[in-house]
Amino acid sequence: MSQVTVNSLETIDRVPVVHDFGFSSVPPKESDVAMVFVGGDRSNGVIVGVNHQASRPRDLAAGETVIFTQDGKQIYLTASGGIKVAANGQPVEIDNATVVTINAATKIRAVTPRFECTGDIVDNCDSTGRSMAADREIYDSHQHPIANIQTGLSNISTGTPTVTE
Description:
This protein is mostly beta strands. Helix content is 6%, strand content 22%. It folds into 3 domains: 1-54, no CATH class; 57-87, no CATH class; 119-165, no CATH class. The strands form 3 sheets. It has a 3-stranded antiparallel sheet with strand order 5-6-7, with no helix packed on it. A two-stranded antiparallel ribbon has the order 1-2. Strands 3-4 form a two-stranded antiparallel sheet. The longest helix has 10 residues, at 132-141.
């Protein structure tokens, strides 16, 4: 529901806003609205379109779509087929997903000063199934035989690596 100033003498409270299914928003103050009065009844108005000129992205190419907020966050569907998410300095969070799958044909690149993971990282997951922690444990405990040393009946190997990082 929104409040609409129709003219200098008339303000209407609690006007329903009709959105396309799957979309919802609360327009900022000073937004433009297109309103219809059902059956010509001034007490039965419905907002069928809303725009906020100061926030609206401009210079989109034909066929492009952008979902945007007043503070500059955007999900931009480009004409060339790309999708850009502009978080405007805010966190981006995916909640309650059981699995998140990214099917990238070439690579996934994270440009960040720090990459964190709270669980195991498993590389070659479809073949080895071992985590990086398990591989690190194998590496940290491995030894190499020392060749060409005559020690009698004993076998001599190097010690385990001393650098664990």
